[in-house]
Write a structure and sequence with these properties.
The structure is a homodimer.
Chain A: H1 4-13, H2 28-43, H3 50-57, H4 71-96, H5 101-118, H6 120-127, H7 138-160, H8 169-189, H9 198-216
The first copy, chain A, binds a DNA duplex through loops.
Amino acid sequence: MLDLAVDADMMKNSRHCRRERPYHHGDLYSSLVKAAEELLEIKGANALSLREVCQCAGVSHAAPYRHFRDKAALMEAVAKAGFDQLGAMTRDARTKHPGDPVMQILDAGRAYVAWATENPERTRLMFGGMMKSEDIDEDLHRTAEAAYDEIYRIIDDGRSAGVFGGRDTDSVVLSAWSAVHGLTMLILGSGKLTPDSPGDVRDLADVVGETMLSGIRSR
Amino acid sequence: MLDLAVDADMMKNSRHCRRERPYHHGDLYSSLVKAAEELLEIKGANALSLREVCQCAGVSHAAPYRHFRDKAALMEAVAKAGFDQLGAMTRDARTKHPGDPVMQILDAGRAYVAWATENPERTRLMFGGMMKSEDIDEDLHRTAEAAYDEIYRIIDDGRSAGVFGGRDTDSVVLSAWSAVHGLTMLILGSGKLTPDSPGDVRDLADVVGETMLSGIRSR
DNA sequence: ACCTGAACACCGTTCAAGT
DNA sequence: ACCTGAACACCGTTCAAGT
């Protein structure tokens, strides 16, 4: 809790932090989400305070309560935006390689690992047990489900085409997703795996991706 | 932040919380670790406060600072104990099936997923990015490394025996560990995967384990 | 050597009051 | 309808003082 002056400067210079402030903000909801996303990656989940987010957005520390039930609800909105991006990227990987399920799943895996590596704190937030807690917004659940469905669709199409095997699609999805998600969390969480360039990240994704493919290909 | 009276009762009844308190505690270090482990699983990482841990251990909220640099250092000690258990379980899986690398890795995977499912908050602590931060105790790094080495040894022996393939042992370890760790984190973190019995957990571990084995077996 | 109690700067949340 | 300022109960950390 040192360098308060430095922190203040940093917040002024951050992209989503405003200097001028009319009494009515205009679009405080999405300003708070943007500011929270940015500060989350800078400070980490543990050190991020709602009051900082408010200062960054240029409002008093009580203002968010008009738009969010509490701090957790703001973080849910950040997580939802993340699942939206993840789902969109997976859909892109599918449509980019029509009729080629192997390239679809490999590309989706690369994108998954790359996005998570670039947004580590957001990824940890999304998969850190938040989804498990009782009072989760139905909206968030649906968005996460939609991202999952994109993976399901790649695997299911691949099985229909005879490219992938397995007893049922859910088992194959579970295995493939576990491998990619596991690599992701090991990169984010372990001191051992520390790729220092996007190329390194992609190499790791390909190592795990190839092994995963040998495991799910039809024989 | 409600039910303070209830929480106080709960702490009194918790296993590692003491009622009588001589001025000198005796073994405060390990009492704090035990209390932190227990309260961590009950309240979750976000809601766990050092002051609660102190109350549970029967000392003032300033007492820990004689034994730990700060709150993070106490949590590191909790994580270290977790890696110790994980390493021991993997070693058990190896020695229990001498000469059978397939059963060794399958059993180790089952134990990994089972332990994490029973200790979700500790697992999230261990793999939640803590290891990545700059000022990590060398002790903790060594303990985590020792747990990794147990997995490495299973895979390396299996490759020497011609049971597992792959270009090098590290790639195979990465693939196998990613699959098991990914399943683990999906169970802990996603709302989708919610096994409600140890049998269900084991079934999931076997689904992912079999696919992973098809991927790493020598062909 | 080990622990306490008061103090400090922070935090999330609430609510009457302002615009 | 939207935002502020003061207030409340908490929190991590420090430090002189007690045992």
